[in-house]
Write a structure and sequence with these properties.
The chain is of the alpha/beta class. It has three domains: 1-243, Rossmann fold (3-Layer(aba) Sandwich); 246-410, 3-Layer(aba) Sandwich (Rossmann fold), CATH 3.40.50; 413-465. The protein has helices at 20-36, 60-70, 82-92, 140-150, 157-168, 172-193, 216-244, 260-268, 311-316, 318-325, 341-354, 374-383, 395-411, 427-434, 455-465; strands at 7-14, 40-48, 131-134, 153-156, 248-254, 285-288, 297-301, 329-335, 362-367, 388-389, 413-421, 436-442, 446-454. The structure holds guanosine-5'-triphosphate and magnesium ion.
Length: 472
């Protein structure tokens, strides 16, 4: 844990469809991710390439430049033949293949026109980094080739994200989920990197042995075991969820660092973890809005999203996201002061549709308005007329937010008379706590309540009013 701070150099590949601004934004985000892991970013190397599947990702010249940052040779000792490695991997991986598209071309010379060969970096920057982090998902053989050329550990974006997740996972569910993703990711890579040197196993508590010692089959067995364990917990969640089903729930979803937990904290008066770091939250928390509303509304905080989120992680967090799937309303929280919030919103929507939550009604929350100028704020409201603009630090905004949620449910509500015979016990209390009673009138057999309630809740209540089979 208390290792000295390592310095990292980042590598960005600009594919034909990627604009320079997008490349920069992505590298900036990678810088935040890497910083979250405790590394110090000292520089970056970027290159335009027609694809990122070549054996060393970078062309020869850029590879030499990169190697200067880390005092490597700049050449690959022996290039791993990706075709053989693919066949080998197929053989090893007779079941689900990791989501890897192997290198399709290793024809470096074809793409060297963009290279400024021998573009040496300034003297003082040489040998200043101990880790290389590439802003794309690499295959095991690409990692191995790069490591050979730069002479130090190479991580890809996925590796960084998985490492953050495994450090931040607190609850049992989150730990199991992250561990599955980590093993799925590391399994094939460990074999091909032949030992992984100082590749950190990360805080994967609960595994007990270092991942390097595990051969592929053990890793696979372990994943199976973890899945079984997770399923058992999943069932408990389902039970709890069913119990909550008759209540209205609102899920906060969005990009990491958008302010979901802050909003959750402010609106529920609870002590939820908020931090200016990526992926602060990995678990779903559910709390009623406080002061309590009528009907009662449950708010849930969920894991944040990010661009190029590893598929394994999305899959492993599916059960966490199920909470969002069950919500009556989604609040898409964005950091409206972040220049790239539109594409972040896109990522959130895409990820949610991958888990099947795109049918749920939603409301856009433009957060952190305190960071906007009056003009910026006005322009955004023109662009997103249906959104609500708030700062989680402003009491009036929070009040507006609360009203907006409540009025959303009011429009979705029906007014209805329900008759409750005196013979049915206890239900009136439940009705009063869950829905709004507009008026009531009594007669000799029972009470008639005029209520305003979401249809779903009303259905649940009416079910309880069906008299049980007669007992003598
Ligand atoms: N300026 C400003 N900062 C805010 C506001 N709301 C939240 N923040 C800050 O944004 C950072 C991230 O907040 P969180 O609530 O942890 O964000 P999150 O969406 O839960 O992030 P993850 O858990 O990583 O997905 C923290 O430093 C908050 O203090 C706001 O309205 N204005
Ligand atoms: Mg959070």
């Amino acid at each position: 844990m208390d290792k000295p701070v390592k310095s990292a150099v980042l590598v960005g590949i600009q594919l034909p469809k990627v604009s320079t601004a997008e490349l920069e934004a992505s590298l900036q985000e990678l810088t935040r991710l890497v910083t979250t892991l405790g590394y110090n970013v000292v520089g970056q190397v970027t290159q335009k390439r027609s694809n990122d599947r070549t054996v060393t990702v970078l062309g020869d010249g850029k590879l030499k430049e990169l190697a200067q940052w880390t005092n490597g040779t700049g050449v690959v000792a022996s290039v791993v033949d990706v075709k053989i490695s693919k066949a080998k991997q197929k053989w090893l991986d007779d079941k689900e293949e990791p989501n890897e598209t192997e290198a399709t071309s290793d024809n470096e010379s074809e793409e060297s026109e963009n290279e400024e060969a021998n573009n040496l970096i300034p003297e003082e920057k040489r040998n200043s980094a101990q880790v290389v982090i590439v802003d794309t998902e690499l295959s095991p053989s690409q990692i191995r080739n790069l490591e050979s050329a730069v002479g130090c550990t190479v991580f890809d974006r996925t590796g960084v994200i998985i490492e953050i997740f495994s450090r931040h996972a607190k609850t049992k569910t989150a730990r199991l989920q992250v561990e599955i993703a980590r093993l799925t990711y590391l399994g094939p890579r460990l074999r091909e990197t032949g030992g992984g040197e100082d590749r950190e196993g990360g805080g994967g508590k609960g595994v007990g042995e270092s991942a390097i010692e595990l051969d592929k089959r053990k890793v696979r067995d372990r994943i199976k075991e973890l899945r079984t364990e997770l399923e058992a917990i999943g069932n408990q969640h389902q039970v709890r969820r069913n119990r909550r089903d008759q209540e209205i729930s609102v899920a906060l979803v969005g990009y990491t660092n958008a302010g979901k937990s802050s909003l959750m904290r402010a609106m529920t008066g609870s002590e939820i973890y908020v931090a200016d770091k990526l992926f602060a939250t990995l678990d779903t928390t559910i709390r009623p809005i406080y002061p309590e509303t009528r009907p009662k509304v449950l708010l849930s905080d969920t894991v944040g999203f990010i661009k190029k989120l590893p598929h394994d992680l999305v899959a492993s967090f599916k059960s966490t996201l199920d909470e969002a799937l069950n919500a009556s309303l989604l609040l898409f929280v964005v950091d409206s002061s972040d220049a790239s919030f539109r594409s972040q919103l896109e990522v959130t929507k895409t990820t949610l549709s991958e888990v099947g939550a795109d049918e749920i009604p939603s409301l856009l929350v433009l957060n952190k308005r305190d960071n906007l100028s009056a003009e910026e704020a006005a322009a955004l409201m023109v662009e997103f007329p249906d959104a609500i603009m708030i700062s989680t630090r402003d009491k009036d905004d929070l009040k507006r937010m609360r009203e907006k949620i409540m009025s959303y449910f009011e429009t979705d509500m029906v007014d209805e008379d329900i008759f409750i015979p005196y013979t049915v016990q206890g239900i009136i209390g439940e009705i009063r706590s869950k829905i709004r009673v507009l008026s009531e009138s009594y007669n000799e057999n029972g009470v008639t309540l005029r209520v305003r309630s979401p249809e779903k809740v009303l259905e649940q209540i009416k079910k309880k009013l069906i008299p049980p089979p007669r007992t003598r």
